[in-house]
Amino acid sequence: MTDKEILENNKLIANFYDTYLTVKYITTTVQQHISNYKDLRFHESWDWLMPVIIKIEKLGFSVDTKYCHCIIINGLNCDKYININTLKESKIKAVYEAIIKFIKWYNEKNK
Asked: What is the pTM for the complete model shown?
């Protein structure tokens, strides 16, 4: 993934999450970082990525990770069908890519 793609994907995630993050014991808002998207670390930090997973699960979807694999499917939200399945060279890359695919799908379904 290029730096430009990472930047665009981090913007996408930040706009989807748009609330508080606790990053290494410091509470911050994503909005504070939006002025400089290069400071966003969704692509490399579980501290940044896990709150997004929790938000997806609160929306009624199931996020399952094993090794270098991530699946996002319908959980409690049966009226919206989704099945995202990613396999990458590391777990965080698989989860990051699955989240990006999910957000693009979610935004399209909720226009």
From this structure: 0.81
Q: pLDDT tens digits for 64-100? A: 999 899 999 987 656 677 888 889 999 999 999 999 9
C-alpha of 41 from chain center? 11
Q: Rounded distance, CA 14 to CA 19, Å?
A: 8
Q: Is the pLDDT of residue 6 over 60?
A: yes
Q: How far apart are CA 58 and CA 6, in angstroms?
A: 25
Consecutive H or E run containing 98:
helix 91-109
CA nearest 12: which of 111, 100, 93? 100
d(CA 70, CA 52): 14
| CA-based torsion, 78, 82, 87, 91: positive or negative | negative
